[in-house]
Structure to design on (150 residues):
């Protein structure tokens, strides 16, 4: 019986040596450099788009051409607290925006440059209110989702 155990142990050792040698020779036992996984950061992943409702309606007067403008405005933010602050101070924001929109040159609102300038002033106005009353700019972008002049 001793002979059978010795043969069995010998066979296991030979198999283990063969497997080890095979792994070594194929490079499976060599240490590989750690793989670096770079995940692209999506800065828009947590972005929320908040509508300022209802739409803004501005009259430029009967003689002006165009004489009226209707705007839908949405703001973008990743700051939950800024959303709460915006809702709290919405009367101030809407007031300042109505004054801004009503003071525009109607002819400039028909050009892309005029609309882009108004979007920048709108962002600046909202951020100004939030900075004053919330302590941060709070929002990152402004979008006009409807822009009608007539």
């Amino acid at each position: 019986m001793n002979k059978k155990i010795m043969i069995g142990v010998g066979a296991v050792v030979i198999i283990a040596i063969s497997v080890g040698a095979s792994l070594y020779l194929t490079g499976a036992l060599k240490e590989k450099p750690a793989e670096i996984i770079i995940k692209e950061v999506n800065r828009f992943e947590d972005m929320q788009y908040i509508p300022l409702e209802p739409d803004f309606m501005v009259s430029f007067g009967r003689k002006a051409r165009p004489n009226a403008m209707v705007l839908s405005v949405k703001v973008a933010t990743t700051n939950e607290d800024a959303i709460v602050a915006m809702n709290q101070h919405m009367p101030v924001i809407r007031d300042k925006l109505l004054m801004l929109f009503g003071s525009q040159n109607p002819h400039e609102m028909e050009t892309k440059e005029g609309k882009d300038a108004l979007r920048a002033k709108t962002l600046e106005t909202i951020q100004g209110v939030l900075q004053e009353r919330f302590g941060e700019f709070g929002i990152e972008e402004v979008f006009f989702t409807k822009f009608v002049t007539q």
